[in-house]
Structure formats: structure tokens, C-alpha cells
Amino acid sequence: MIFPLWPSWEWGGLGKTALAKAVYNDGKIQQHFQEQLWVCVSTSFEVNFILKRILESLKPEHAAVQARQAICENLKKELKGKRYLLVLDDVWNEDAHKWEELIGCLENANDTQGSSILVTTRRDTVANLVETFPRRDLEKLSDDECWLILKDRAIPVGSAPVVEDQEKIGREIAKKCGGVPLVAKVLGNMMRRKKLGWQSIGDNVIWNIPGEDDRILAVLKLSFDELGTPSSKQSGVLGRLTNLRSLPFVEIGKETGTQIGEFGGLNHLKDTLSTHNMEHVRDKEAEKANLVEKKHVRKLVPRWGLSPVRWGLSRPSNSADSSEVVLEVLRPHSNLEFLEIHDFLGVKFPSWLLLCSNLKERKLYSAPGCAAHPSISAVHLTLTFDFFKMDGGDGRVRGAPGCAEYALLERD
After folding, report:
1. How confident is the model at residue 319 (pLDDT cuts 50, 70, 90)?
2. Largest Cα–Cα distance of the chain, in whole Å?
3. CA–CA dist 355, 165 (Å, integer)
4. Residue pair 188/150 in contact by the 8 Å Cβ criterion
5. Mean pLDDT value across residues 259-277
6. How many CB atoms lie within 10 A of CB 284?
7. Alpha-carbon distance 19 to 247, whole Å?
8. How far, in Å, are 12, 250, 299 from residue 272 at the CA level?
9. Are 250 and 221 a contacting pair, CB within 8 Å?
């Protein structure tokens, strides 16, 4: 039997899961199918896990079954003679062999015509791999449609009409939504809370973040911060987002706001992890981040705050020691390929730097302690880091023994 397989493809936030849920909960759909099954797949496409989740949905008492053959045999028994709808939500797998393994078991388990599989994905390649029927690609909203969502969320019923200047700002924010309804909804809620402070949303640095998915996550993060969400509550929220894949720009709070320890369970994070305001991090909190388990993170960018030397400020007496300890504890997985450190206040680099065998590029931007400390030579720095800028921005190391000035080449 060949399954009618309907893929739905779109960028994150356009509503693919919402659409799938609408189909799943439709009354006519529920009448047509004798069984309805939903599995959130995410990045890890493990065939046994997916089959096991399907079986558990049908018969919870089969939760202990582990072997592939036993799972397939039980599925065949439970699905015999039944027409079912299976939703595989948020699929990232591009491995045709794994897909064939899954479909092979499902085809063998069911001899009834009319069963269907609905797949949602963010990847065009996945949709091309799985489709047997024409796919449904979701389109982005227009700027006007985003403005309608923003206005609906931002202006309570019965409120005074939006004045001209306010609408102008609102429409500029609508353009920044990128046609993504999730972004419009979140920003609309923020605008409702700020009322007269809409301009601060439009001017926020998050709009400079490259990558649509990354900007969406940054908007969600900004929404948490605007709510003034206590750290303990935020931890609960992040704790439930264990399948979060991208978190490229994070500002660490001093006492409230996001804490680096909240990353502990986010082991699906991938690509770039950039943490700002590292001066607020303490070693125990840094240890909770558990970066060594995040094997998909390829680039790590820890940033301390204002460089005291650069801005003529006095540096706290314990800042160097604290920075060194925190960076030592933040040991990444050996898969790390790019390391970029900004405004490091310490004079000693972490021991794990020599253990990261896959590092392709190491950059150090402004490390006043390293430049002035007598135990660190310019030669040592250039052997350790490919490129860095010291205070003054001219790419020169000063105060290193054996040379009055050592110029470094900038490689952009």
C-alpha cells in the first residue's frame, strides 16, 4: 500500500503546526479516521522512537516494548482493519533510508486503504523527500495583514483609536515581522503592554540578527524580558523548550532575566550560541549550562560587557579571576569549530582550548588583561588565536615581553 502523504512546508512561525492541529481536530476528519495519531519528531529522527510513540498512543500498556520487530508486530495487531491519520510534526530528517524504514513498518502494519500521513517541516528538501501528493506550502502574510494582527493585539477593545504617529510606528514594526504571524502576535502583546513605548520595539537590536528562525527566537526572548519574568519562571519555560534548536543571541541578566544555567537542558541547540554580559555569570551558574553536552553548537561567542580599559573605567579587583573561572567552566563539546571571545577580563585562557581538536577559527576581540600582563607574550597569543583586536582597535598588542609593539593581521 502506498500512503497518501501530504507534506506542509514553511519557515518557522508561519503556522504549519497550527494548520495541522486544525486538520487533526476537524469534525469530518475525526469521523473519517478510526484512529488519529500525533508525534512531534523534531531534529532527532529515530525510527524506533517514532514507532514506539505511535504504539504508546494506541496502547499505553505497550510502553515497555523496545525491540523494533516487537513494536511493528504490535502495531500490526492494533491497526489491523483500521483507517488512521498520522501527523508527524516538525520533521527535519533528510535521510531517505530512515524514512523508508519508518514507512516500511507502517505499510506492513496496516492492510486498510485510506490511511494518511501528514508531515510538517521547515525544510523544502524534506518535503521533496516524503511527498506522494502535492504539498501545501504556507505563504507569508503581507505587511498590512501583520499590522492588523499587531493592532488587534495591541489595542484593547473599547480603547481610543490609534493616532496617526502611533500607526506609523506600528506599521514600521509590522514590516519587521517578515510576514510571520507568530512574530506579529508576540510583538502585538508587547505593544499592548508598552502603549506609548512602541518605538523602542522598532529600534531594538534584534532586527539586526541574521536568519529568520533566529530572529523569531530573539523576539520570544525579548517578550520574556519585557514581561520581567522572574528567573525561576523563565527557567521553567526554557526547561519545557528542550527541543529548542537555535538561540544565537542571549543577554544574561544580573539578578533577574535570563540566566546561563537555563541552557542546561537545551541539548538540541545548534550552530551559534552568543552570550552577552558574561560579567554577570558566576562559576556555579556557568556549570549548570552544561555546554559540553551541546554537540551541535559549532560556534561559541562569549561576550563580557564594557571593557573597563577601553572606556577608562576601573576594573573590579576580582573580575579577572571570575572571568577565568567562568570561561574554564564553560567547556564546550569537542565538535566546536569556531570560538570568538570579546572583552575578556582575565589573563589566563581555559585549559580546554587545547582539547578542542576541531577548532577551525579562534578570535579574540579586546583582552586588556592579556595585553598588559607580563606572563603573556604576543607570540603566544598569535599561536593561540588567529586574530584579535586589543583596546584602541588597531590590532596591536602592547606590553608583551620582547617587543614594544606586535602588529597582527586582520583576516575578515
Report:
1. low
2. 84
3. 56
4. yes
5. 83
6. 11
7. 25
8. 18, 11, 5
9. yes
User: Which three cell numbers mark 16?
Assistant: 504549519
Closest CA to 8 of 97, 88, 84, 83: 88
Question: Can you list the alpha helix ranges (DSSP code H) found in 228-357?
Answer: 231-240, 283-288, 319-329
Res 305: pLDDT: 72
C-alpha 315/C-alpha 328 separation (Å) is 20
Backbone angle region of 13, left / alpha / beta, with phi > 0 → left and psi within -120 to 50 → alpha = left
Q: According to DSSP H, which parts of 195-342 are helical?
A: 198-202, 212-227, 231-240, 283-288, 319-329
Within 13 Å, how many C-alpha atoms sit on residue 100's CB side?
3
DSSP summary character for residue 162:
P
pLDDT in the model for residue 314: 43
Look up residue 18 and give its three cell numbers: 497550527
**Quick one: residue 410, left, alpha or beta (phi over 0 = left, psi -120 to 50 = alpha)?**
beta
* DSSP H or E stretch at residue 4: none
Rounded to whole angstroms, how far apart are CA atoms 206 and 220?
Answer: 11
126-181 pLDDT tens trace: 888 887 777 777 788 899 999 999 999 888 888 888 889 889 999 999 999 888 88
For residue 39, the cross-strand partners are 88
H helices, E strands: number in the chain: 16, 13
Average pLDDT over residues 24-37: 91
Vertex 84, ends 81 and 87: CA angle to 5°?
A: 155
CB crowding 212-225: b at 16 or more within 10 Å, else e: bbbbbbbbbbbbeb
Give pLDDT, residue 200: 86
Cell of 238: 526554557
